[in-house]
Amino acid sequence: SKMSNENRGPVPSRWLHCPRKAMRLIQGKFLAFKTPLSSAYDNQVPEECRFSVDKFFANLRSQKIKMGLWIDLTNTTRFYDRKTVEDYDCKYLKLRCRGYGETPSEEQTRTFVQVCRNFI
């Protein structure tokens, strides 16, 4: 509905022209990608630019990549539903970072490294 779209707010600035994801795995373990947007944003995003959780996992499947842990570094939960990620049998962790020119704190960095070590 129109109401729920308004509550979600606008597409993040610079999102449309940001690449969807890294071309290849980093160290064979990590894949950097921009935050997907749920279908609630479809009316703000041209079809060829859409990038949803489902589209992301379909792309991984086509490359025979299995994602086991998803670390969300955004400072909000409005872009997509974490349950969509968990539906793909992928663990989800929210690690809120400010972004926009701010580097993560030492504590955030330590947490990220520890979580990754424990998972790998």
TrEMBL record:
Entries under InterPro entries matching the protein: mRNA_Capping_Enz/RNA_Phosphat, Prot-tyrosine_phosphatase-like
GO biological process: 7-methylguanosine mRNA capping
UniProt GO MF annotations: mRNA guanylyltransferase activity
This protein's name: mRNA-capping enzyme
Organism of derivation: Camponotus floridanus
High-level lineage: Eukaryota, Metazoa, Ecdysozoa, Arthropoda, Hexapoda
